[in-house]
Protein: Lytic polysaccharide monooxygenase
Amino acid sequence: MRKKTKWYAGVLGLTTAGAIVLSSGAASSHGYTDLPISRQKLCANGTVTNCGDIQYEPQSVEGPKGFPAAGPADGQICNGGISRFAQLSAPKAPSGAAWPTTKVTGGQSYTFRWQFTAIHATTDFKYYVTKAGWNQNHNLARSDLNTTPFLTVPYNGQRPSSSTISHTGTLPSGLSGHHVIVAVWTIADTTNAFYSCDDVTF
Structure:
């Protein structure tokens, strides 16, 4: 199955088309990103320890939809506004060390991947990234982000056809060092969305 991927790149000043690649695979009651690896997945696989409840349910970062106009409050974006997952929004991992990052290259193709444990009717998937010079010393806020998504994948109420889906496209250029990608899966028939924060190094 292939779908058109609509790109919104206001900062880059261009619009392109990308492919959605659907694949089958094992999922570890909802969803999270594992490419780039998300904070909740790092906790679930033991790379980051002392994470609390999120280590047992990385798929459950479900908060209000409508981001960035609505959704989780500033400082709670990465935990979806769920207090028992607050560790995910801290600027450092629970150990006090930096969150591990995935190395990426701006301006080059990258495949984002979601794992699902329950598949929902979907409005879209959107991807946001922090700005150059963002404040890394506090919990992530909207002011740290380019609030125009660099990638939007519309689903128009359809359900993903697999427990694993991938969106392949080009990363924003002009960034360097540590950044956070916020991936948002918006559900069509509820008031919620799922949030994943992925730490990357450009």
